[in-house]
Amino acid sequence: MEISSEPLIYGLIFVGVLVLVEGIYLAAFGKSISLNSRVNRRLQMLESGKGREQVLEQLRKEMSQHIKSQSIPFYALLAEKAQKANLAFTPPQLVMMMGVLTLVAFVGLTVGTETAIGVRALVSVGMGIGGIYFWVAGKAKKRMRLIEEQLPDAVELMVRSLRVGHPFIASLNIVAKEVADPLGTEMGIIADEAAYGRDVGEALKAMAERLQMQDLRFLAVAVNIQQTSGGNLAEVLDGLAVVIRSRFKLFRKVAAITAEANWSGKFLSAFPIVALIGINMVQPNYYDKVIETPVFIPACFVVGGFLLANLVIMKKLTNIQV
Length: 322
Fold this sequence. Notes:
Blueprint: H1 6-29, H2 41-47, H3 52-64, H4 79-85, H5 91-112, H6 117-163, H7 168-178, H8 183-195, H9 200-211, H10 214-229, H11 233-282, H12 288-291, H13 296-318
């Protein structure tokens, strides 16, 4: 019994593509870009000797560059996720990375497999574009999850600062210094923008729309109402912190309840593909008798469509808004 190693090689090359793009990202921008750092990126840039205005300009450019570049070919697919991930890579650099990873994958497939050159080229393009998309989506998901977790603590820190007599701008500066990334840098940008004359409520609203977070919209509305109508902002934000924590707990409960259905959909879609790979590894000639029939390719597309439809439908059924 001959076991084919090509499916394993495909998987290893794709993993290598993801590791390569992460390594290039960290090498280009250093540890300050990592969300695991205790000191947020804005403070590290200030400590390195850059001026406050220069840091603000660079961070604002990184925040807005992706959503403005949707006209670049293939880039519209990941512009929104790159915006949420706040990647320091520019859009042209990301497109160039797609080309580099495609070339690396093609070389790997050429060395490790005997697949036809057309198939190798097609798979390489899929790995290059898909690898970047998968990497960007992972970065965006991690960053948004961290902001959701950090926001209640940051709002409570603002409340304590306001209650001891600090103005709201000073409370934002305290959050920018005490809170790690990603929220620390985001609040620091708002504090810097306010120092240069931008309205705080407008800056918070722009941040909420850019990240598409409902809790940040609540914060922006609370600050705008206080600015126009007056009132005790500390009490308003204290109640907002309670609401955010309650929503976060409810979201976790919903995620736990729908986890079984969500993973069932993923398993049912992935199992036929895993079974196909396993059969080809154990018995490479298993499909030789049917692969030449005229209905084989259409049947593959039909099965692939059903698997994709299963993923989409299960995702919609388990995507409960809180």
